[in-house]
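Reopening this ticket.

The earlier resolution said the output was attached, but the attachment link was broken on my side. Pasting everything inline this time so it's all in one place.
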Amino acid sequence: MKIEEKQVTFPKSLSVKYAGKIVEETETHMTLEGEDEDSYLKIFNPFRGVAKLLLFENDRWVDAETSVAASNFDFSSLGLGDLSALSAGDES
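Inline output:
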């Protein structure tokens, strides 16, 4: 998973719900751009429970639980596989 300014890129293998503008979509990943306060990314665990909710507030993605910038969150703690594997050079 990669978060840069208004955009969040995540593997399509994740079970998610979202609201925002899709700026790029390939076979393996999707890039979502936050547009306003209604933009969000809800990541589910394999049991359909919510693993993490990101909200777009004040022109940045934040953790809904803590209101801390999502770019500082350790996504490996969710136990959903290696979300850090997606880097700026990944293209499909």
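Reporter confirms the inline version is readable. Residues 23 and 89 are 16 Å apart (CA to CA). The mean pLDDT is 85.
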